[in-house]
Specification:
32 strands, Methylamine Dehydrogenase, Chain H, alpha+beta, globular, 4-stranded antiparallel β-sheet, about 575 residues
Length: about 575
């Protein structure tokens, strides 16, 4: 199951992601995190013991006849009396790439007179090959998708390579020669594969890319590549996407000290000012004030986090009347007079709110836009030009409101027969909208009327089943060179990527808009001294593109072993 997805713009990922190594400082941090979890579990155990008496203690007592064998410590490593550290079979090799191997001949038998095993260190060639496999190019996009299989959840980090050289059916241009791969004759088509993954502690509900390094300085030099993840737990985890094989997040928003946790168990407050107390339903990173992250929760609050200290800067408790706040998105227009202070939210109070977080009084900081028939808001999105916004409801309806006027919706569309699970507006085409529903397996693409204040609803261009199961997430690419690329995930297995412009019906419906986009892409590429691929795509012979990620070698080996 793919429950959430988002893109990473080009140029932010490290070219050579680092292999995670456990330093003393990191080990101390992990120990502190583990101790908090252990202390919380112990507090819960103590609470149980207070009510159940000595029942639990009697269950864990060791039989007197077996005490002398100390079986509860049977698997523990011996401890060095001088250093106090565990003695392992191969001390000092925990942070190396050493591997454990057998000595065999060509027939797979043991070599005569040889020991059974030996240690090998990777050669320079092997290290170079591994480094090349992990390399991320400036023209690559990362795609983030949260996946759950057999009750275990992951964050999958994909790489999408749009290719190099002239697209199929197009001619080479002089600027193509500035591409190092093209200059070396390595012309290639597009490719999608899983780069690495990270294990998550709970079922993920939302993922948001961050360009800001937590606990870093609040200035323009602080550029990072991180993912914030919301789950059924009230904490928000932040992971470094440029670090491979990492086991613990770089920061946890809303984590609390043990003593506070004990008090919380007794008080059981519904809302707290410094953290969430229920599932985190949405996340939105402020692109202008990059140290600010907004989160909404089933506890009915909206939190504004200051990532310089990873603490709540402000808690909005009554914007949606204490009901679930399901979705959020910052208004990120740099030319907007609000200067990054406008936040769009939707909740289960059948309302959308546009809030100016600079206003101190919570009662007067928001404009409210009501949906009909007491429908609950599942997702909200700004239009590409930010003049309007869209809201999807649990009844399968999509509403369009004029953001400048607190009024009734401009139009209402019954898009699906079940609750809207995903609603995406294309960043580069102001009249392209995509919807999906949690009870349906199709993604629908809509064309809006060109007039911003038009009361006419959109027309459906196509409805497509991407074999992803019931649709849970869809997101458009953030870069102009891949403006039509959409990733789709759902209750089935696998993430699909569809180049919407590769479809003839879509190209016909958005012919004028696509032409202007290609012209703009060509001009931007020429100014940067390179060639544009999207400007030369989508000829009459262009084949529709729907991709699924290549499977890694490790996955194939695991399947062979199972067979």
């Amino acid at each position: 199951m793919i429950s959430a997805s988002c893109w990473v713009p080009r140029g932010y990922a490290s070219e050579f992601p680092e292999k995670y190594e456990l330093t003393d400082e990191e080990m101390n941090r992990i120990e502190q995190m583990a101790n908090l979890q252990i202390s919380e579990a112990q507090a819960g155990l103590d609470e149980t013991e207070e009510t159940d008496g000595d029942t639990l203690k009697s269950q864990i007592e060791i039989d007197d006849d077996l005490k002398e064998y100390d079986l509860e410590h049977y698997d523990d490593d011996p401890v060095d009396e001088i250093t106090g550290e565990p003695i392992t079979m191969f001390p000092g090799l925990s942070n190396t790439a050493a591997s454990y191997a057998k000595i065999v001949n060509e027939d797979g038998d043991m070599e005569e007179g040889q020991e059974e095993h030996y240690l090998t260190l990777p050669t320079e060639k092997e290290e170079a090959e591994e480094k090349a496999e992990l390399q991320v190019y400036p023209t690559d996009n990362m795609v983030l998708a949260t996946r759950t299989e057999d009750d275990v959840s992951y964050l999958d980090v994909y790489i999408y390579d749009d290719g190099a050289g002239a697209p199929l059916g197009a001619e080479e241009e002089e600027e193509d020669k500035f591409d190092a791969d093209v200059a070396n004759g390595l012309v290639r088509e597009n490719n999608l594969y899983i780069h690495h993954d990270l294990m998550l502690p709970s079922f993920p509900l939302c993922v948001e890319w961050l360009s800001y390094k937590p606990y870093g300085a609040n200035d323009q030099s602080n550029i990072g590549n991180f993912a914030a993840i919301g789950t059924f737990e009230p904490q928000i985890e932040i992971w470094n996407l440029d670090s491979i094989d990492k086991a613990f997040p770089d920061a946890i928003l809303g984590d609390v000290e043990t003593e506070t946790k004990k008090k919380k168990k007794k008080a059981k407050k519904r809302q707290l000012p410094d953290r969430h107390t229920d599932a985190v339903l949405s996340l939105s990173h402020n692109k202008l004030y990059r140290n600010v992250l907004a989160s909404t929760s089933a506890d009915g609050t909206v939190k504004l986090w200051d990532l310089t200290g990873c603490q709540v800067a402000r808690s909005l408790d009554g914007v949606h009347g204490g009901k679930h706040v399901s979705s959020s998105q910052w208004l990120d227009e740099e030319s907007d007079s609000s200067n990054g202070s406008i936040l769009l939210t939707g909740g289960y109070d059948s309302a959308c709110c546009i809030s100016d977080v600079r206003v101190a009084d919570e009662k007067s900081m928001s404009r409210r836009y009501k949906l009909g028939n007491s429908e609950e808001v599942e997702c909200v999105r700004w239009s590409a030009d930010s003049s309007n916004f869209f809201a999807g409801s649990d009844a399968g309806n999509v509403y369009c409101f004029d953001a400048r006027v607190e009024s009734k919706p401009l139009w209402t569309l019954h898009a699906h027969d079940s609750g809207i699970s995903t609603l995406e507006a294309n960043k580069f085409l102001n009249n392209m909208l995509v919807t999906g529903a949690m009870g349906e397996q199709v993604v629908k693409l809509w064309k809006l009327d060109s007039e911003q204040t038009s009361m006419r609803g959109p027309s459906m261009v196509l409805s497509r089943d991407f074999d992803c199961g019931k649709v849970l997430t869809a997101s458009f690419a953030p870069d102009i060179e891949v403006a039509g690329n959409l990733v789709v995930g759902g209750s089935g297995s696998g993430l699909k990527m569809w180049d919407s412009f590769s479809n003839k019906n879509v190209r016909a419906a958005f012919k004028e808009q696509l032409g202007r986009l290609q012209q703009r892409a060509r001009q931007e590429a020429k100014a940067a001294g390179r060639a544009s691929r999207i400007a030369r795509k989508y000829t009459d012979k262009y084949v529709e593109s729907v991709m699924e990620a290549e499977r890694g070698a490790d996955d194939e080996e695991d399947e062979e072993e199972m067979e």
